Amino acid sequence: MKYLAICEDDLLFQFMRKVATKRGEVLFLVQKPEVARRIRRHGASSQWGDLEKEETYQKSHLEHVDQVILFIRDVELRARVYVVLRSLNPELPILSLSSEKEITGDRKDPFFRQILLEDIFQEFCAPQLLDTFNRQKVERIRSLFREKDKIHILLQHDPDPDAIGSALALRELLGRKRATTPIVTFGQVTRPENVAMIRLLDIQIDTISYNDLHRDRAQLALVDVQPPYFGVSLGKVDLVVDHHPKRIPFTARFTDLRPHYGATSTIFTEYLRAAGMEPSQRLATALLYGIKSDTLFLDRASDVADLEAFTFLYPFASRALITKMERPALPREDLEALGRALSRLQLDDGVAVIHMGEIKREDVIPQMAEFCLQIEGVEWAVVSGLCGDQVVISVRNVGYVRSAGDVMKRLFNAIGSAGGHRSMAKAVVPLERFKEHFGEVSEKVIREAMVSLIRQKEEELSERIPAERA
Fold first, then answer.
1. Which of 18, 19, 316, 372 sits most deeply, having the most CB atoms within 10 A of its CB?
2. pLDDT in tens, 91-124
3. How many other C-beta atoms lie within 10 A of the C-beta of residue 84?
4. What is the pLDDT of residues 389-402, one digit of tens each?
């Protein structure tokens, strides 16, 4: 293809010489001879002339041009040039680059298109800036750890796919092995899907005690979790990378928190790309599953960054393994627990509330909350249970702009650990503190507290949106 780039100076040439010239022949048409000479000295084709005169375009052989790119910052001059071009060729494709939303050409002109410079920046420059930003992060992370030091990558008590995939990526990013950089937790992996994941991908997660955390002078890295989650001092923390909002101040040598991202795996995918590292099938599968599970296949609390990371990982990952992880064998006792819970479901104006009583495995609670969202008429699901000496409450909702995390923090943060995102959140409260605050642990108490605050948040949102639109 042959392009005619019409511009006041050589700024457009500097921008597009490495892009457009690879896709076709470009002739730069400028107003001044010295600018034309400068462009030619860099190996490009250029002419100069009065941009408002027809003879200028005759010299440019407009009849052989396939596409005109118009980059003139003077709005009035740009409009006059458009008129000249249309008088010479009514069907010549014209692409106008501008910094304002004002339309230069005829709005009904089917062969005219205008693109804002900010959109071009977003398309071509923003990804490069993000890579530079993440490359800087990678170098900083690598500088934290000495080659001979042992590193513990600490995850939450019952690690999920996002945490597991992120931990695997950090170890790969550091060029470490399992022996020197073990993935550890104070709890254990219990949810069937996650057990299937670590089995199918051969990922070892060790259960350790607080006393073992810095044994042999091990350094400490946290992914998909923050130090306050654990409720006790972890000592010196070297790294924290997470996508959850920061709730309580903490200290770490390096912190990268991105609460607008749907998954921590997305952050690590960006790290790998910035470092020029192509993920193995095992690592890509773990990261892809982490993003998929935390965002419900990019449907919940996700960002454009999650979509881009998912697209990057997809060709490298094993879809067959992910299918096996998502459909593990469900123990009969779990099915029985879910069945008993469903029989006690209470639906109050779109809010489903279930208290499961005493349970052996905490992961059954979020499973039940996810399932409740599939019930007709349910917009919010609130599921609670007693797990040992703790009350665990899981919340889900179907809307993107709802505020599950805010609701949980307002109700339970003062007496336990609570937080999350707009559409999914969790609270863990010591049993005695729950009783001191609410009197008892029951479905009635939880329903009254949750439904009231959910309705309040919904009303605040409905009042705010019309005000913002006005």
1. 372
2. 999 988 887 665 555 567 888 988 887 666 665 5
3. 16
4. 999 999 998 865 56
